[in-house]
C-alpha cells in the first residue's frame, strides 16, 4: 500500500462501480458521507434537462423553495433558528419513505403558513380600514361642530354675489366656516399619505380654481401597511364644494393620488352610532389579529426548530441525484455504472461503505468495485489537516501540483515563516504576533462555530501560519538583538569601551546573535547593512539550489533519466559556479580576521576586498584578480575555471536534450515504428469484463507528433529563462535585506518619536505624558509595524516562494481532487 505524505500527492486509482438500481440512492448517500470519490461524467453529450433524475431534482428544488420561504418568514418575524448541534455529518440522507413523509410535512406547513398569512393580511387590511374610518369619524365630527357654530357667517357670505367662497382670513387659518348641507354643498372625506398632502392641495386648488374648502388633520397614531409592514404617516381630510360636478372631480383626483375615501353621513346621530359600532369592530378585529399572530408565530417556532435539519437533508438528497445523473444505466442488468477517481489507500473504506449501504437497504445484491487501468492523468489529492491546510493553500494559489509531482507545501511550512521572520525580525513584535495567534489557536473551537466578519475569518484560517511567523520572528529578533528597536543584553558584551578612545576593543565573542554593543554606535547601520545584505544572498542561493535539487526527485519518479544529466547537472553547475562561488567568498571573507596585525603592527591580510567588484571583474577580466581584491592564492585560476564551466553549461542545457530526442526518434522510425495519429480507445464489453455491463469507452493514449523545431524553441526559452532567472532571482532575495532594514529603522523612529522622550520625565505630568505616549506608541506599533509591515513582509515572502523557489522545479499544472462530499457541498452553499 502506498504511503501518504505531503511530499507527493496521493496515488489515485480510476474505479468503476456497478450499483444495483434499488440500492443506488443509499449507496451514493453513503459514498457522499465518506467523501473519497470524484465521479466522472459518463454522459457528457446529454443535456442537463434530459438526464435520468431530472424529475427528482426538480422535486427537491421545489422543497428547497419551500424551506427558503420558511426562512424568510422566520427571519421576518425575528425568530431565532436553532443551529445545527454537533457534526453535520450525523444528519444522514433519508430513504424514500422518509423523504415522502418529510415532503408531506413541509407542504402541510407551507399550506398552513400561507393560509395564516393570507388571513392575517386580510384581517390587517380590514383593521386598517376600520382604524382609518374611526379617525375620519372622529375628526369630521370636529369639522361639523365648527361648521354649526359658524353657520350664520357662511350664509351671509353666500347672500352677497361678490363675496368669495373663502375669506382671506379663512385662507390664512385653514378655514373656520363650513358650508352646511342645507346650503346645497357636498363633501368628500378620506385618508391620504402625509407626504402627498401638499401636492394634493395644490392640484385641487388649480383644478377647482379655488371653489372648495379643505380641512385636514394629522393622525398621531402609527398605521402599519399590511403588505410591506412599514409604518405609514397619514392625514384625515374633508373637502366641501358646491355641485355634483365638483364633487366628482374631487373624488377622481383623490383616488388618483392614492387616497382612501370613506362615506360619512351628515346626520350627527348616525355618525355617533357608526363611531360606536366601528370602535367595537376594531376591538374584535384586534383580538382576532392577536390570536392569528400568536398561532402563526407558534407554527414558525416549530419550523425553526427543524429548519436547518430539513435544509441539510434536502441539500444532501439533491446532491445525490445530481451525482447519479453522471452515471450510466445498464437496462439489461438494472444497475447504474459509475466511474471516478479515489485515493488508492482508501479502497477498504470505499468497500466498507458499499457493504454498509447494501446491508442497510436490505438488498441481497452487492455493489461491485473494479479498478480500471488508464493513462489519463488523475487529479491531485494532498491530505492536509488544520495545521498544514493554510500552507498548502499558499501553494495551491500559485497552481495545483501536477499528479505525484514534488509538493512545495511540505517545505513551505518552514521556509515561508522563516523568510517572513528575516524581514520582520524583532523579538517584541514577534511576541505580540505569537500571542495573537495563540489566542486564535486556543479558542479555535469557539470560532469554528461561525465567524461573520470576513477579515477576521481570513486571519483565523491562517492562525497556524501566523503562529509560526511569530515564533520565527522571535528567533530572528534574538539574532538581530532587537526588541522594539532596543538591544537585549542577555550575555556579557564582547566589546569594551576604554576612556579617551573612540573605538571599542574586542575582548570576546557574544554567544548568540549580534552584540548589543553595536546598537548606538556610529557604524551600526553600515555593519547591519553589510551583514543582512550578504545573509540575504546566502539564503537565496541556498533556497534556489534546493529547488534545483528537487527536480531530481521529479525526473526520477517520472522516469526522465535524460533530464537528470541534460538539465539538472548543467543547471546545478551553472548556479554553483557563479552564485555558489559568491556564497563561498562571503563566508570566506567572514571567516578572516581583517584586523589581525603582524609583528610590525601592519595588517596581516590587508583591506577586505569588495565582493561585488570581484564578481563583476570575474566576467570582464577572467583569470585576472587585482591584488587589493584577492581573497586567497590562485583565485584568478579558480574563477576562470568556474566561469568556463558555467559557459559550457549553457549549450549543454540548450542542445543536449533536443538532439538526443531527435536521435531516438529517428532510431525508432528506422525500425518501422511511428506515432499513432488517432486516439486509441479501450472498450469494456462482456468478453473482456468479468462483470459485463454497458459499453464504456475511455481514451487511453494521446501521443503528439514529434516536432524538433517546437522542442528546440521550448528548450531555448527554458535555457534563457533559467540563466537570466539565476541573476534576477538572486537579486530579488535582496528584498530580505531591504525590508528588514526598513522594519528596524521604522521601529527605531517610532520609539524615539513617541515613548523615548517621556522616559526621563518625572512627577504627575511625566506619568500623564508617559501614558499618552505609550498609548500612541502601542497603537502605531500594532497598526503600522504589525499589520502594515507584517502584510508587506507576508506578500514579499509569498513572491519569493512563488517566483524564485517554485519555478525551479514546480509545474503546478494539475487539477485539484474534488470528491463528492456532503461536507464540502454544505460548506460551499453556506459560504
From TrEMBL:
Residue ranges annotated as coiled coil are 92-133
Q: Which UniProt keywords apply?
A: Coiled coil, Hydrogen ion transport, Ion transport, Membrane, Transmembrane, Transmembrane helix, Transport
Coiled coil found in the keyword field: yes
- Primary localisation category: membrane
Q: Which residues cross the membrane?
A: 418-442, 454-480, 535-556, 568-592, 637-660, 764-788
Is Membrane among this UniProt entry's keywords?
yes
Lipid bilayer topology:
Multi-pass membrane protein
Q: Where in the cell is it found?
A: Membrane
MF-aspect GO terms:
ATPase binding; proton-transporting ATPase activity, rotational mechanism
Q: Name one GO biological process term.
A: vacuolar acidification
Family matches, as InterPro entries: V-ATPase_116kDa_su (IPR002490), V-type_ATPase_116kDa_su_euka (IPR026028)
Q: What are the annotated GO cellular component locations?
A: fungal-type vacuole membrane; vacuolar proton-transporting V-type ATPase, V0 domain
Q: Which family does it belong to?
A: Belongs to the V-ATPase 116 kDa subunit family.
Purpose: Essential component of the vacuolar proton pump (V-ATPase), a multimeric enzyme that catalyzes the translocation of protons across the membranes. Required for assembly and activity of the V-ATPase.
The name under which this protein is listed is V-type proton ATPase subunit a
Which organism does this sequence originate in?
A: Dentiscutata erythropus
Amino acid at each position: 500500500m502506498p504511503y501518504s505524505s505531503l511530499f507527493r500527492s496521493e496515488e489515485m486509482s480510476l474505479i468503476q462501480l456497478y450499483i444495483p438500481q434499488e440500492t443506488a440512492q443509499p449507496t451514493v448517500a453513503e459514498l457522499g458521507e465518506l467523501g473519497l470519490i470524484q465521479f466522472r461524467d459518463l454522459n457528457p453529450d446529454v443535456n442537463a434537462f434530459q438526464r435520468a433524475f431530472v424529475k427528482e431534482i426538480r422535486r427537491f428544488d421545489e422543497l428547497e423553495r419551500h424551506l427558503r420561504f420558511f426562512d424568510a418568514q422566520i427571519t421576518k418575524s425575528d425568530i431565532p433558528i436553532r443551529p445545527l448541534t454537533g457534526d453535520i455529518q450525523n444528519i444522514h440522507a433519508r430513504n424514500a419513505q422518509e423523504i415522502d413523509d418529510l415532503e408531506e410535512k413541509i407542504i402541510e406547513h407551507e399550506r398552513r403558513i400561507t393560509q395564516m398569512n393570507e388571513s392575517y393580511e386580510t384581517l390587517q387590511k380590514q383593521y386598517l380600514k376600520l382604524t382609518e374610518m374611526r379617525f375620519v369619524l372622529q375628526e369630521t365630527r370636529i369639522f361639523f361642530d365648527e361648521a354649526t357654530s359658524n353657520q350664520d357667517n357662511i350664509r351671509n357670505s353666500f347672500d352677497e354675489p361678490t363675496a368669495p367662497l373663502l375669506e382671506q382670513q379663512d385662507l390664512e387659518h385653514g378655514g373656520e366656516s363650513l358650508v352646511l348641507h342645507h346650503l346645497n354643498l357636498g363633501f368628500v372625506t378620506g385618508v391620504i399619505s402625509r407626504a402627498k398632502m401638499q401636492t394634493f392641495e395644490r392640484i385641487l386648488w388649480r383644478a377647482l380654481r379655488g371653489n372648495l374648502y379643505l380641512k385636514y388633520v394629522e393622525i398621531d397614531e402609527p398605521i402599519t401597511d399590511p403588505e410591506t409592514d412599514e409604518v405609514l404617516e397619514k392625514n384625515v381630510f374633508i373637502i366641501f364644494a358646491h355641485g355634483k360636478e365638483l364633487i366628482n372631480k374631487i373624488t377622481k383626483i383623490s383616488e388618483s393620488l392614492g387616497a382612501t375615501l370613506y362615506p360619512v353621513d351628515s346626520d350627527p346621530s348616525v355618525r355617533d352610532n357608526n363611531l360606536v359600532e366601528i370602535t367595537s369592530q376594531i376591538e374584535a378585529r384586534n383580538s382576532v389579529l392577536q390570536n392569528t399572530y400568536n398561532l402563526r408565530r407558534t407554527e414558525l417556532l416549530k419550523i425553526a426548530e427543524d429548519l436547518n435539519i430539513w435544509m441539510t437533508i434536502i441539500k444532501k438528497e439533491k446532491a445525490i441525484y445530481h451525482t447519479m445523473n453522471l452515471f450510466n444505466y445498464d437496462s439489461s442488468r438494472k444497475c447504474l455504472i459509475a466511474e471516478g477517481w479515489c485515493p488508492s489507500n482508501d479502497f477498504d473504506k470505499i468497500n466498507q461503505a458499499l457493504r454498509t449501504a447494501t446491508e442497510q437497504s436490505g438488498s441481497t445484491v452487492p455493489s461491485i468495485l473494479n479498478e480500471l487501468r488508464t493513462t489519463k492523468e488523475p487529479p491531485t489529492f494532498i491530505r492536509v489537516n488544520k495545521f498544514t491546510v493554510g500552507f498548502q493553500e499558499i501553494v495551491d494559489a500559485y497552481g495545483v501540483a501536477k499528479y505525484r509531482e514534488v509538493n512545495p507545501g511540505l517545505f513551505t511550512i518552514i521556509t515561508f515563516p522563516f523568510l517572513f521572520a528575516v524581514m520582520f525580525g524583532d523579538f517584541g513584535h514577534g511576541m505580540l504576533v505569537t500571542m495573537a495567534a495563540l489566542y486564535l489557536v486556543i479558542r479555535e473551537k469557539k470560532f469554528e462555530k461561525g465567524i461573520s466578519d470576513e477579515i477576521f475569518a481570513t486571519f483565523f484560517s491562517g492562525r497556524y501560519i501566523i503562529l509560526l511567523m511569530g515564533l520565527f520572528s522571535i528567533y530572528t529578533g534574538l539574532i538581530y538583538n532587537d526588541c522594539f528597536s532596543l538591544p537585549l543584553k542577555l550575555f556579557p558584551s564582547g566589546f569594551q569601551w576604554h576612556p579617551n578612545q573612540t573605538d571599542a576593543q574586542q575582548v570576546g565573542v557574544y554567544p548568540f546573535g549580534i552584540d548589543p554593543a553595536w546598537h548606538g554606535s556610529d557604524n551600526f547601520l553600515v555593519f547591519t547593512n553589510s551583514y543582512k545584505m550578504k545573509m540575504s544572498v546566502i539564503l537565496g542561493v541556498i533556497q534556489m539550489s534546493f529547488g534545483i535539487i528537487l527536480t531530481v526527485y521529479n525526473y526520477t519518479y517520472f522516469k526522465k533519466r535524460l533530464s537528470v544529466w541534460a538539465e539538472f547537472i548543467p543547471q546545478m553547475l551553472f548556479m554553483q559556479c557563479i552564485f555558489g562561488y559568491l556564497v563561498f567568498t562571503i563566508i570566506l571573507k567572514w571567516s578572516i580576521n581583517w584586523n589581525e596585525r603582524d609583528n610590525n603592527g601592519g595588517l596581516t591580510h590587508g583591506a577586505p576586498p569588495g565582493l561585488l567588484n570581484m564578481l563583476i571583474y570575474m566576467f570582464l577580466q577572467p583569470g585576472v584578480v587585482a591584488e587589493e581584491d584577492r581573497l586567497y592564492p590562485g583565485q584568478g585560476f579558480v574563477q576562470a575555471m568556474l566561469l568556463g564551466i558555467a559557459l559550457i553549461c549553457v549549450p549543454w542545457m540548450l542542445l543536449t536534450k533536443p538532439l538526443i530526442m531527435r536521435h531516438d526518434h529517428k532510431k525508432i522510425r528506422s525500425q518501422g515504428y511511428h506515432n499513432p495519429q488517432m486516439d486509441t480507445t479501450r472498450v469494456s464489453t462482456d468478453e473482456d469484463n468479468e462483470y459485463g455491463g454497458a459499453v464504456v469507452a475511455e481514451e487511453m493514449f494521446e501521443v503528439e507528433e514529434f516536432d524538433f523545431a517546437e522542442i528546440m524553441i521550448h528548450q531555448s526559452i527554458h535555457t534563457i529563462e533559467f540563466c537570466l532567472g539565476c541573476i534576477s532571482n538572486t537579486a530579488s532575495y535582496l528584498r530580505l535585506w531591504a525590508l528588514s532594514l526598513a522594519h528596524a529603522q521604522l521601529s527605531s523612529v517610532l520609539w524615539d518619536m513617541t515613548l523615548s522622550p517621556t522616559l526621563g520625565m518625572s512627577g504627575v505630568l511625566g506619568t500623564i505624558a508617559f501614558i499618552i505616549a505609550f498609548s500612541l506608541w502601542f497603537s502605531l506599533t500594532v497598526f503600522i509595524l504589525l499589520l502594515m509591515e507584517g502584510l508587506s513582509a507576508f506578500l514579499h515572502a509569498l513572491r519569493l516562494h512563488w517566483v524564485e523557489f517554485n519555478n525551479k522545479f514546480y509545474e503546478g499544472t494539475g487539477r485539484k481532487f474534488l470528491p463528492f462530499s456532503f461536507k464540502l457541498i454544505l460548506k460551499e452553499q453556506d459560504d
